Amino acid sequence: TTLTASIAGFDFDNVLLNAAGVYCQTASELDQILEASGAGSLVTKSATPAERDGNAGVRFAEMPLGSINSMGLPNLGLDYYLDYTITHQDEKPLFLSIAGLTKADNLAMLRDVQDSDFNGLVELNLSCPNVPGKPQTAYDFDTTREILNEVFSFYTKPLGVKLPPYFDIAHFDMIAEILNDFPLAFVNTINSIGNGLVVDPETDTVVIAPKGGFGGLGGEIVKPTALANVRALRQRLRPEIKIIGTGGVTNGRDVYDHILCGADLVSVGTSLYFEGPAIFERLNNELIAIMAEKGYNHLDEFRGRLQTLA
Ligand SMILES: O=C(O)c1[nH]c(=O)[nH]c(=O)c1I
């Protein structure tokens, strides 16, 4: 059974990696993903130009069927993650995530990456829901087009975007129309479902401190939305734009479902947070068992082959 996939000429010897933000804040965490059997790649915590503390107070909580977070983009700064990925980029194809708070910050960081020795893939995060006062960029279609126009006026290395979930067919059409106009290597869908609210039944309070308790939802609970976004974008995007499916992966069947909906790679967030990097080997083994049951030897035999009802 081969679990390979490729994006922008990079060959991945299996389809799993971490979701940006999970297990990827420090070199120590990143090393654990890099060395984890079953992880084909890794992505760094979304970076801003300078180090950030992120939001104050309790900013992550487990809830039934998932997690809620309002981390607020804490990170060690672009140079830290650029150093890490340049150091390790010959071991596996790597993703460097960036999330500037302004268009100027995104463009400045991309100029640095363009001029650096990093030759991996950049994931431009247009969907952080947790910086107070900042909207999720990719819900603003004009701004998204404007940013991509400026990015691709100078950036020539492989680049993809991390998208928020969309919930309206018209919005799938609109974002795909924009993305198809650019030489994107991939899109990663979905980011957390923004601004959910969880109540602690013991205390009648919210469960995280920032933003009055509003935070991004991840885990099992988001799987149907994640699959819908993978499927809708696969149906609409040019085939050269690959898809990283993220959201709701807890077992091999969830990985299989993301691929069935069209994903080329599959990333794991909430479940990785709770289980640790050993999850990757488990997920791969479970995926291989499902493929064996169905007589599949390669992902190409079922990728994107979700059937509709007559
Ligand atoms: O709060 C965060 O740091 C965060 N949290 C998320 O759930 N998605 C994101 O893209 C980010 I940048």
Descriptive terms for the model:
four-stranded antiparallel β-sheet; 15 strands; 32% helix; alpha/beta; 310 residues; binds ligand IRO; seven-stranded parallel β-sheet
Question: Which blocks of ≥5 consecutive residues have pLDDT under 50?
Answer: none
Strand order of the largest sheet: 3-15-14-9-8-7-6
**Percent of residues in helical segments?**
25-40%
Element string (H = helix, E = strand): EEEHEEHEHEHEHEEEEEHEHEHH
Beta-strand segment tally: 15
With helices defined by DSSP (H or I, 4 residues minimum), what is the helix count? 9
* Bound molecule kinds, no repeats: ligand IRO
Structural class: alpha/beta
Oligomer: single chain
Structure description:
- α5 packs across α6 (223-236) and α7 crosses α9.
- Helices cover 32% and strands 19% of the residues.
- It contains 9 helices and 15 strands.
- By secondary structure, it is an alpha/beta fold.
- The strands form 4 sheets. It has a 7-stranded parallel beta sheet with strand order 3-15-14-9-8-7-6. A 4-stranded antiparallel beta sheet has the order 4-5-13-10, with no helix packed on it. A two-stranded antiparallel ribbon has the order 1-2.
- The mean pLDDT is 98.
- It is globular and about 50 Å long.
- α4 links the parallel β7 and β8.
- The protein has helices spanning 27-34, 78-88, 103-114, 141-151, 169-179, 223-236, 252-260, 270-275, 279-294; strands at 5-7, 10-12, 16-18, 60-63, 66-69, 95-98, 121-125, 159-163, 186-189, 193-197, 199-200, 205-206, 214-218, 242-246, 265-268.
- Bound molecules: the ligand O=C(O)c1[nH]c(=O)[nH]c(=O)c1I.
- The ligand O=C(O)c1[nH]c(=O)[nH]c(=O)c1I binds next to loops.
